[in-house]
Amino acid sequence: MDLKYAINTLRMLICFYLFVSDLSQKGYNNVVICYNHITSNFLHKNNYRQ
User: Fold this and answer.
1) What's the total number of domains in the chain?
2) Which distant-in-sequence residues (6+ apart) come within 8 Å of 22 by Cβ?
Protein backbone atom coordinates (compact mmCIF):
# COMPACT_ATOMS: atom_id res chain seq x y z
CA MET A 1 0.00 0.00 0.00
CA ASP A 2 1.44 3.32 -0.96
CA LEU A 3 1.60 6.27 1.37
CA LYS A 4 -0.27 8.77 -0.81
CA TYR A 5 -3.14 6.31 -1.13
CA ALA A 6 -3.24 5.87 2.65
CA ILE A 7 -3.25 9.63 3.21
CA ASN A 8 -6.04 10.15 0.69
CA THR A 9 -8.07 7.39 2.29
CA LEU A 10 -7.59 8.99 5.69
CA ARG A 11 -8.72 12.35 4.32
CA MET A 12 -11.85 10.78 2.91
CA LEU A 13 -12.61 9.14 6.25
CA ILE A 14 -12.17 12.44 8.08
CA CYS A 15 -14.39 14.16 5.56
CA PHE A 16 -17.01 11.45 5.90
CA TYR A 17 -16.93 11.92 9.67
CA LEU A 18 -17.44 15.66 9.22
CA PHE A 19 -20.27 14.92 6.83
CA VAL A 20 -22.06 12.69 9.33
CA SER A 21 -21.52 15.01 12.29
CA ASP A 22 -22.64 18.01 10.23
CA LEU A 23 -25.89 16.35 9.18
CA SER A 24 -27.07 16.66 12.77
CA GLN A 25 -26.31 20.39 12.60
CA LYS A 26 -26.61 22.73 9.62
CA GLY A 27 -23.38 23.33 7.64
CA TYR A 28 -24.25 20.98 4.79
CA ASN A 29 -22.74 23.11 2.01
CA ASN A 30 -19.31 23.20 3.65
CA VAL A 31 -19.31 19.41 3.82
CA VAL A 32 -20.22 19.04 0.16
CA ILE A 33 -17.42 21.42 -0.84
CA CYS A 34 -14.98 19.50 1.33
CA TYR A 35 -16.10 16.15 -0.07
CA ASN A 36 -15.90 17.32 -3.68
CA HIS A 37 -12.42 18.75 -3.14
CA ILE A 38 -11.09 15.55 -1.61
CA THR A 39 -12.66 13.15 -4.10
CA SER A 40 -11.48 15.20 -7.10
CA ASN A 41 -7.99 15.38 -5.57
CA PHE A 42 -8.12 11.63 -4.93
CA LEU A 43 -9.15 10.84 -8.51
CA HIS A 44 -6.57 13.24 -9.89
CA LYS A 45 -3.73 11.50 -8.03
CA ASN A 46 -4.97 8.07 -9.03
CA ASN A 47 -4.86 9.10 -12.69
CA TYR A 48 -1.13 9.76 -12.35
CA ARG A 49 -0.55 6.23 -11.12
CA GLN A 50 -1.90 4.54 -14.24
Assistant:
1) 1
2) 28, 30, 31
